[in-house]
Write a structure and sequence with these properties.
alpha+beta; two-stranded antiparallel ribbon; Bit1
Amino acid sequence: MTASFLSYSQNYFKRFAFFVYDSIIVHMNIYSRNFLKRISAFNYLNLNHFLMVDIKTERRSKMNRTAIIVDKKLTLGQQANLIAILSAAISSHTSDVIASDKIIDLNGNLHAAIKNNVVVLKANPTAILTLTVVLKEIGDIEFIVFSKEGQNSSDRFSEYKNTIARNGSKDLGIVGVALYGDSDKVKQATKKFSLLH
C-alpha cells in the first residue's frame, strides 16, 4: 500500500506540476500578447507621429516659392538682364533660396542648388508697384525690387545708392520685383500676372 500510495502521490504531483506550468504559460502568453499589442500600438502611434512630423517638416521645406515679375514692356534682352539681376539679388537677400550644398555631376560640373520652384511673370509697371505695397501688408514674404535707375547706373554704384536713398519707388520707376516665401501666399499675391513666355 505504501508503494501504491507513493506512486499515486508522484503521479498526482506530476499532474499538478504540469497544471501549474500550463497555467503559467497560458497566462504568460495572454500577458505577452496584450503587452505586445500595447507595445505595437504605442510604437505605431509614435512611429506614425514621427513620420507625420517628418512629412510635415518636409512639406514645409518644399512649400516655398520664388516669383520674379518683370515689366512686360521691356525688350527681351532687358527682361533677361533684369531676371538675372533679381535672381542674384533675392538669392543673396534670402539664404534659403539656394542650398549651400555643392551639387556636382559625373563630369565634375557644378550645378545650381536651387531648392524651390521659380516662376517668371510679367506685368505693367503700375501693377508691379502696387504689388510692393501688397507685399508690405502681407509682411512675411521677402521681396526685392529693381528700377530704371538701376538699369541706367552703368557701374556707378555709389551714385546709384545715393539716388535710391533720396527717392521714392514711384519716382525711381520700378521695373521688376523678386519675391520669396510661402508658396500659397506667393501664388495668391501674383495670381493676376501672366507667365513670361
